[in-house]
Each structure stands twice: as structure tokens, then as C-alpha cells.
Amino acid sequence: MKKKFWLPFIITLTLGTLVSAALRQESTQTPPAGYPIGGTVADFKLKNVDGNVISLSNYKDKKGVIVVFTSNHCPFSKAYEERIVGLDKKYAAQGFPVLAINSNDAGDYEENSFENMKKRAQEKGYSFPYLQDETQGVAKAFGATRTPHVFILRNDGGKFTVQYIGTIDDNYQDPAGVTKRYVEDAVSNILMGKPVVVTQTKAVGCAIGWKDA
Amino acid sequence: MIKSIGLLGAWLFFGHQLVQAQKVSVVKWKEIQDILSQSSDTTYIVNFWATWCKPCVAELPHFEEVQKNYKDRNVKVIMVSMDFAKDLTARVIPFVSQHQLTGKVWLLNEPDANNWIDKISTEWSGAIPATLIVNNQKKKKVFFEQKLDYDRLVKELSDFL
User: Fold this and answer.
1) Could you tell me the residue range of the domain that residue A202 belongs to?
2) Where does the Thioredoxin domain start and stop, copy by copy (chain A) (predicted)?
């Protein structure tokens, strides 16, 4: 008799705990924030314009990777193409290459098709992979929202951690007018074993149009 | 005579529209800041767009319509183009006149966006289209980093009027 009296309370308590746990989980799932500064990046595999599949783990022997979410159609991306090539030229030899990713839906802008990506990489002499993120899963994992959107990853013994998120420099219109070189400053500091000073910046960019939105 | 007056009238009418449509001011951050810090009971809709941005161009007519339908209700729409300043005469002005935009169009020539994006909204990643609705007297402000349509704009505006 005594046991039965307690039963509803126990059930209520158990259900309540379960429901609140479920609610908590839901609230931490939204919004999709992407990796924070210091966060560890999950390995990914994407198709390169040369037909090979590239994964982040291919870079295990590098000091880090400059991941650039970019696109063919976006004027901000176009304005930065040569500067991105310049970054790879400067840092690949020091073990810190560029990895460019296009997560845009070719259905939105035909310019972003795989064929057009191949052409652009050739025309602009990309010395680094230009990967197609067809499912947009990599952009979502990173929390990339626009192009260009840079994530600097440091190799911490085979584990890649995010050290910088943001823009390349402070003047998209005119490379000659640049006064702050955020990406160069960050990579230089990492190469010297120093912490990155400015870890996050913002820039106006073309929104990555989500296929499921 | 009547015919020529008619022609003159047509010329004045369309010519006037054309002049109105072609007006694009190149502004610096200060002009935006003035809007953000004004104290009158005016609701400002500030939309960030660009001529080459498809979702931005798709929503332009909705902002035009809001501007026309709400002009007597202290609502002002400002379309802030993020096109490059060098493209003003070759691209932005022809676009604005082709699309017959009659509202206020600014071209914000302030390339160090990291300095001002958070002042629009800390929620803004920098992607466009983006829209801010603000009324300082009512101490109300909402921000959207997404496409909006007429119904949504009207719904959001109802909280401000």
C-alpha cells in the first residue's frame, strides 16, 4: 500500500526529468553556431576541382590551414581572389597553406557549378585546392555564413583547432588601402608560437544560400 | 498645340521620374549613425543589399511597396547598397533607374565593415540581405539576416506603429 502511494510521484519525477533534458538539448541545438574560437574541427572530405577527394586529415603534417569559404559569383570573393592566392604563396612554404571551399548552391548561381569552379581555379592560378561542399555540411559545421569567410586552423598534434574567424583584411574594395591584415597577423603569430590577438572580425559578404531554407 | 503640351507634360512627368529614380547618394558611416541615433518618432527600415545579390534584388519590390504604403505613417525606407563605390555610375545608377526604385538609395562606401557591422546589430554576421527596423523614440529595434517579403515587413512594422 505504501509503495503504491509513492508510484505516481516517482513516475512524474522521472518524466519531468526526461522532458526537461529533452528541452535543454533542443535549446542547445539552435542556432547552429558553428565552431567557437578554440573549438576542434571535425574531419571532412570534399571533392577538389582536380577530381581528387581532399580531407582535412591530409594536412596532419602542416602547422595549420587557412580555410576560406569563397565563391565564384560574389564580388567580395572576386575582390579577394588575388589576395587569397597571395596568402597561399606566402604561407604554404611555411607549412600553413590555403584550403578554399565553395558551399554555394549552383542552383542559385550557375557560376558556382563544379565546371565553373574548375575554370576559375585555372584562370586565377589557384595553387591550393578548391573544394565543392555540395551538401553544405562543411559550411554548416564551421558556421560559415558568407563569402569570403575565413577560419584559421592550428594543428595541435593532429587535432585542428580554430584560432581565427573573420575577414582577410580591412578593405575589400582596394588592396592598396588595407591597413589591418587580420589573417596575416593571425598566421604569423601562430607560426611564432604566439596567441592570435584579434581572433574574430566581421565583414560584409554574400550570404551562402542554404538549399533547405 | 495641345499635342505639344501633352508631349511636354509627358516629358516632364517621365523626366521627373527618371531624375528621381536615378538619385543614389554615396554615404559614409556617419549618415547611417545619424539614422541610428535620431530621436524622432520615425520608424526607419534600413535594408542592406547589392545589385548582384539575387535574394536582395528579389525583395526590393516589397520594400518599395512598404515605402509607398506607409509613407504617411512616419515610416522611412533606406536601401543601403553594398556595391563597390567604383561601380556607382556604371552599375548602381543604371540598376536603380531600370528597376524604377523611387525610395531613398544610398551606397555605403565604408570598406572596413568590421568597424560598423556590430553597430547595426551584434547578431549580424555580415551576410546580405540584411534589414534593420528601428524607432528610437519607441526604443524598439529588430534585425534580420535573411530575406523578407511584404507580409513579413508589415507584420514586423505593426509592432512599431
Assistant:
1) 31-207
2) 35-188
Alpha carbon distance B115, A166 (integer Å): 13
**Are residues A24 and A38 both part of a single domain?**
no
CA B60, CA B79: separation in Å to the nearest integer? 9
Tell me, yes or no, whether A10 and A45 share the same domain.
no
Return the amino acid letter for B22. Q
- Dump pLDDT digits (tens) for A39-65: 999 999 999 999 999 999 999 999 999
Question: Does the beta carbon of B72 lie under 8 angstroms from any beta carbon of chain A?
Answer: no
Q: Are residues A139 and A58 in the same domain?
A: yes
Q: Are A24 and A51 found together in one domain?
A: no
| Residue type for position A163 | Q
pLDDT of residue B9: 52
Q: Which of B111, B118, B145 sits opposite A172 (nearest CB)?
A: B111
Q: Which of B41, B73, B44 is nearest to B137 (CA)?
A: B41
Q: How many domains does chain A have?
A: 2
Burial (CB count within 10 angstroms: exposed 0-12, middle 13-18, buried 19+), residue A51: exposed
CATH class for the domain made up of B2-158: alpha beta
Q: Do both A139 and A197 map to the same domain?
A: yes
Q: Which runs of E-coded beta strand occur in chain A? A: 45-48, 53-55, 64-69, 98-102, 130-132, 146-147, 149-156, 159-166, 205-207
Sketch the domain layout of chain B as residue ranges: 2-158
Contact between residue A36 and residue A162 where contact means Cβ atoms under 8 Å apart: yes
- DSSP class of B31: H
Q: How far is CA B13 from CA A177, B2, B93, B95, B117, in A?
A: 43, 16, 19, 20, 39
Q: What is the pTM of this model?
A: 0.85
pLDDT digits (tens, 9 = 90+) for B31-89: 999 999 999 999 999 999 999 999 999 999 999 999 999 999 999 999 999 999 999 99
Q: Choose, out of B29, B86, B114, the residue to mutate when testing the contact with A (most A CBs < 10 Å).
A: B114
Q: Which of B50, B52, B126 sits opposite A203 (nearest CB)?
A: B126
State the ipTM, two decimals: 0.82
**In Å, how far is A27's CA from the nearest CA of chain B?**
18
Is residue A24 in some structural domain? yes
How many angstroms separate the CA atoms of B14 and A4, rounded? Answer: 86
